[in-house]
Amino acid sequence: MTAANKQASRYDPAFANELYTIENGHYIKQCMQCGLCVVTCPARHLMDLPPRRYFKAIQAGDQEQVLKANTPWLCTSCNLCTVRCPRGIPIIDVMHGMKLYLAQKQGVKSAPGALFSKTFFDVMLKRGRQWEAWLTQMYFLKAGPAAMKEAFKMMDVARPMVLKKRLPLAPAKTIKNKGQLKKIYEKAAALAREGH
Amino acid sequence: MAYIFYPGCASEATGKASFISFEAVVKALGMDVHGEIPDWNCCGATLVANAIGDFAQQAIAARNLALAEKAGKDIVVACSSCYLNLAWTNEKMKIDSKFNSQINEALAAGGLSYGASLQVRHLIDVLINEVGLDKIRERTIKPLEGLKVACYSGCQTVRAIRRPDFDDVEYPVMLDRLVEALGATPVPFPLAARCCGGSQQFTNPELIYDLTGKVLDCAAENGADVIVTPCPMCALNTDAFQEKIAKLNKKKYDMPVLFVTQLMGVAFDLKPKDLALQYNIVSPYKKLAKYGVKK
Questions:
Q1: Is any Cβ of chain B less than 8 angstroms from the Cβ of A16?
Q2: In terms of Cα–Cα distance, which of B242, B201, B198 is closest to B219?
Q3: Residue A113: pLDDT above 90?
């Protein structure tokens, strides 16, 4: 294979087409590469690919770059790019769609954000409400020893939170009609699968 | 106008002080708030859509809208993230008929429906546009003269529905007007609607140190005595992470962070238990002492 061919094979239109069909994925086609999202994003300096380049990589079908980029996991949902985008792309929604896609394709342990989001959802669906102290424990239990070591560096933040009752260790209230919530979720998830 | 309250999960933990002071301020102003939405559930915050997608999260959020509609009252929300999820889902229910029918299909699985008849309003919006600044000025017993305040609206507060809402999407001013009505002085605060890093404390802590650090720097450089915010996540990051960030940046901030309803409580001369200042991590007592606040 010549160098030029090797370069060409990096770009797979089928990959771009696949991503256009995920939830909110079709918006990616609207990107005209103006870069306003990049100057807007508060997390751009930590991203492997800032939003503009991330969208270009998707449009080009650059599977390798897209699959390893941390871009969506750094999105804080601050919504600033979404209100500014001149093409009306709801970038926050596209990022949600990408995170769901990546978690399904690569597994929830492929990124800390994927595991934390899944754990948050599991606790929420089971109880109907969030219980932050339990969420934290569950997350680090699943994340493993390396993550737990990192967590200990956060003890200086956690200690005053517990002392000031900002992180109650006692179980938070649950909702009464958990079955109803679960049924609504299951139906919605089925509808979402049919939808794209 | 009659409202029903959506407290959100933070109201029982990191934002407990917001919940307590909200209830006290509602009473002090004689607002027509008829308790909580019965059996409300988590709105999904900024995380659930990552795990199940936007549509399924919005169906879960819509359960709250359906329950509130049964009670026949518009919803008031104090938490910015809850506001985003409820107000944006509500907006889509009103403007997107396909979305509306699909969400109702999901709700029907739980025996519910939502006719999109309600308004979802942020607390700041209700305070300014329904209660009114005159009434807040009138109720102010201890004007907070000389108190310099960085009014941190937060990002999701003003961008929930992705179009101009009750305030500017980039440079909000409503919280400043509210703080002025309490007799305090809002300082220039260009980061008022910039992100604190949100819920990535464990997954990308550098982001929190960086963004929350910038917010703290901006408040300090503009001479603020305290930061005031309606958002539990903004409050948590700027308050609980303040000492850690100060160490990392080799700075000293001494910047108490109050929920807007806590500051209102001080100006309204409410009882210490209504101010809920014992939940604050950076102590606010010294800076509030001249307004009669005691431990």
A1: no
A2: B242
A3: yes
CA distance B125 to B160: 13
Q: Are residues A140 and A85 in the same domain?
A: no
Domain hosting residue A60, numbered range? 7-106
Phi, psi dihedral angles at B279 (to 5 degrees): -85, -15
CATH for B212: 3.40.50.11810
Q: Do the Cβ atoms of B205 and A122 come closer than 8 Å?
A: no
Q: With CB atoms and an 8 Å threshold, state whether A181 touches B110.
A: yes
Number of domains in chain B: 2
Confidence of residue A34 (pLDDT cuts 50, 70, 90): very high
Interval B32-66: pLDDT, tens: 999 999 999 999 999 999 999 999 999 999 999 99
Q: In this model, does residue A1 exceed pLDDT 90?
A: no
* Residue indicated by tokens 């209700």: B126
Please check whether residue B172 touches A, CB under 8 A. Answer: no
Which of A72, A91, A106 is the C-terminal boundary of a domain? A106
Q: Give yes or no for a contact between B45 and B199, defined as CB atoms under 8 angstroms apart.
A: yes
Q: Are residues A119 and A87 in the same domain?
A: no
B269 burial (CB, 10 Å; 0-12 / 13-18 / 19+) is middle
Number of domains observed in the structure of chain A? 2
Is the four-CA dihedral A35, A36, A39, A42 of positive or negative sign?
A: negative
- Closest to A18 measured CA to CA, from A101, A84, A78: A101
Nearest one of B126, B115, B129 to B3, comparing CA atoms: B126
Amino acid at A104: Q
What's the rounded Cα separation, in Å, for the pair B29 and B5? 15
E-assigned strands of chain B?
A: 3-6, 33-36, 74-77, 120-122, 148-151, 185-186, 226-229, 257-259
What residues of chain B, 211 to 250, have a C-beta less than 8 Å from chain A?
A: 211, 236, 240-241, 243-244
**Final residue before a domain boundary, out of A73, A106, A139:** A106
Interface-testing mutation among A45, A124, A169, with chain B (most B C-beta atoms within 10 A): A124
For residues B279 and A166, the answer to whether their CB atoms sit within 8 Å is yes
Domain that holds residue B39: 3-122
Closest CA of chain A from B138, distance in Å? 33
In whole angstroms, give the CA distance from residue A19 to residue A175: 36
Residue B77 sits at φ, ψ, to 5 deg, of -125, 135
Please state the separation of Cα A55 from the chain's center in Å.
15
Which chain B positions have a beta carbon within 8 Å of A79's beta carbon? 84, 155-156, 159-160, 162
Which structure tokens are listed for A17?
């087409």
The C-alpha of A184 sits at a distance from chain B's nearest C-alpha, in angstroms, of: 5
B219 and B102 together in one domain: no
